[in-house]
Amino acid sequence: MNLVELGWNSSYEQHFTPYRERGYSVGRVVREHRHYFQIAAEGGEVLGEVSGKMRFDALERADLPAVGDWVALKHQDGRGIIHAVLPRKSKFSRNTAGATSDEQIVAANIDTAFLVMALHQDYNLRRLERYLLLAWDSGATPVIVLSKIDLCDNAEERIAEVEGIAPGVPIHAISALHTQGLQELQPYLGQGHTAALIGSSGVGKSTLINALSGSELQRVNDIRLSDGRGKHTTTHRELIVLPTGGIIIDTPGMREIQLNASDEGLSSAFEDIEQLMEQCRYRDCKHNGEPGCAIKSALAASELDRSRYDNYLKMERELAYAERRENEKLRRVDKASKKLRK
């Protein structure tokens, strides 16, 4: 397999040139294990690990390789020693759960983020809004894939609801099991283009990959009759090159979506709400009963869904909290580095 089939382009070549001149090879991370990485390169796949210096210099997990990354490596004793991660053009990431604010990269260097949500029991507009926020902030193009349309009796109604919270975002309703609507996804999967499948466990991501590839690449478990959800199948992130030339990154289902985004991502995901805020009589309107508040008027007239607005406020608070944690972490790192320099 050549590098172009893996998504290589002139931009990556430019970033890699200094490493090439120093005798490094290049490859793309296709699978991540606990301490090792499977790397695809022109000579085939090789098991890789991070060099001691790179691990020591890493300030957080996001400084280390993730699936989809292009890495500079040297071969040693049959393994690839990773010395650097080339600059990422995009990254879909979230914060890890817990007291720390470590960034977890779900997929790197993707062109399209397929946000997969099933139309039956998994259907949840508020969760989809969280995925959209992270997708807008990732640098990739969000595309909503509504799966299992064959199991939904009110598909048209639900598609209309999704359109209402995602203006301008492409939406495709499919049934991977019956190959319905799959042709609509092909334009996003041209040669060298990378898409990541993002969604909860059991929404049909593995079935979709099998349908797109034309073979049983991913194991699929039966659906639980109690809630209509597929049992958790994918346990690790993996990059797969499709026979058509496109590239898919499969990811495990997300149980928690800890936000790791910017104000720009929030503005893109809730553009309608922020446009309303600009219509308020007072620029510093708090939307808590002030006269001339466009938000209050839209809620009263049912032009703005209350649950959507509440979700916006909730995510705004989460992002502010995440920013405070990040600033505190940077303060601690700066303090520690000053001690080392003494």
From TrEMBL:
Its EC number is 3.6.1.-. It is found in: Cytoplasm. Keywords: Cytoplasm, GTP-binding, Hydrolase, Metal-binding, Nucleotide-binding, Ribosome biogenesis, RNA-binding, rRNA-binding, Zinc. Binds 1 zinc ion per subunit. Zn(2+) binds at residues 280, 285, 287, 293. Its cofactor is Zn(2+). GTP binds at residues 147-150, 199-207. It comes from the Bacteria. The keyword rRNA-binding applies. HAMAP family: GTPase_RsgA. Belongs to the TRAFAC class YlqF/YawG GTPase family. RsgA subfamily. This is Small ribosomal subunit biogenesis GTPase RsgA.
